[in-house]
Design goal:
It is a single chain. 27% of the residues lie in helices and 22% in strands. By secondary structure, the chain is of the alpha/beta class. A five-stranded parallel beta sheet has the order 4-3-5-6-7, with helices on both faces. Strands 2-1-11-10 form a four-stranded mixed beta sheet. Strands 12-13-14 form a three-stranded mixed beta sheet. The protein is globular.
């Protein structure tokens, strides 16, 4: 015998349309000039500009041969271009796969596993993107840079996002249904390699509609994008939900859980084999990570980096884990790696960026 518990809210009428049509087909006359996505510098798109950009992205990726079931990965922090990329790829009939990768190897796994042919990458993540597309069995044919590219081009062709927006071919008329694949976000990989989660157009449409009985957003609402748009909650609850309500989304490029050096230092000093310690932030594989500077006690000459890392990992949240360890005879008053380290006269250690 089965027990069905029904919601107090009315059943959802699910339209048989693709997600971009659901969100943008019935745009009102007052929406064209209404701000849609902006950043803290006020760069961004009105709803009229956003729908036009979505059409240009769709035309640009279709011109590059992407269509039904082809995959494009977007590797970028939150920015005003994100919805233009996401919905432009979907409007071409292709699949958008948002990426959250700390290292080139993690990004290469997603590119390889999804079979992605195009990679959208922010300028800040371009070094990792270039390294990832060069790895074995990655099929990416072109990287499209959101922002100004720096350094020597990678192993595949690179184009600027402005070049894509300047595409003059007609917007494709992709015939899509609710069961067609729309998004391919990847799991966090806590139990092994990250895995793609297949989300159809109907899945994403329902994700917006089922929140409407509790939705307090409207055309005058402003939503701060604190959730990352590479996460499905960021895609559905934040981006698509606000766009459906014709609200305004304000993006920040980064939302960091900052690691307090003093917290990790205090923890390290509880280890019986450590006589002094300091924590600095350094760049490693393109990202900023905590590094421990450790002075061994004479009673523990065999203390190694793996033991120090395991000691910390067992006692803190995953994002606070020490990623690198360096053993010293004494903690210096200043330390320079990718960042500078200072020990003020007060004795309280702090680190700061150069």
């Amino acid at each position: 015998m089965s027990l069905i518990i029904r919601s107090h809210y009315p059943d959802i009428a699910i339209p048989e349309v693709c997600l971009p049509e659901f969100l943008f087909a019935e745009r009102g006359t007052d929406d064209a000039d209404r701000p849609a996505f902006i950043d803290t510098s006020r760069r961004g798109y009105s709803y009229g500009q956003l729908t036009a950009a979505i059409g240009r992205v769709a035309a640009g990726v279709a011109e590059r041969g992407l269509g039904r079931h082809d995959v494009a990965v977007v590797f970028s922090p939150n920015c005003p271009d994100y919805p233009a990329v996401f919905h432009g790829v979907l409007s071409a009939g292709a699949v958008c796969s948002p990426a959250n990768a700390l290292t080139p190897a993690e990004l290469a796994h997603q590119l390889r596993d999804s079979g992605a042919r195009v990679l959208f990458a922010s300028a800040d993540s371009l070094d990792r993107a270039r390294a990832a597309v060069a790895e074995d069995k990655v099929r990416v044919e072109e990287s499209i840079v959101l922002g100004s590219a720096r350094g020597a081009p990678g192993s595949v062709r690179e184009a600027g996002f402005d070049e894509l927006l300047a595409c003059t071919v007609p917007t494709p008329k992709a015939v899509l249904g609710g069961d067609d694949l729309a998004a391919l976000p990847y799991s966090s990989g806590t139990t092994g390699l990250s895995k793609g989660v297949m989300s159809t157009h109907r899945n994403l449409v329902v994700g917006v509609l089922q929140t409407q009985p509790l939705n307090l957003l409207g055309p005058d609402s402003r939503m701060l994008a604190v959730l990352p748009l590479f996460h499905i909650h960021g895609v559905t609850g934040l981006m698509n939900g606000t766009l459906y309500s014709r609200g305004r989304i304000v993006t920040m490029p980064r939302f960091d859980h900052q690691v307090a050096p003093a917290e990790l230092e205090a923890l390290l000093l509880t280890h019986g084999g450590i006589s002094d310690a300091a924590v600095v932030e350094v760049h490693h594989d393109g990202v900023e990570v905590p590094k421990a500077l450790v002075v061994r006690r004479a009673t523990h000459p065999g203390l190694d980096a793996e033991e120090v890392q395991a000691f910390v990992a067992a006692r803190v949240a995953p994002y606070k884990k020490v990623r690198l360890v360096e053993f010293l005879d004494q903690i210096p008053k200043s330390y320079s790696a990718d960042d500078a380290f200072a020990k003020p006269r007060s004795g309280r250690r702090v680190w700061h960026r150069r």
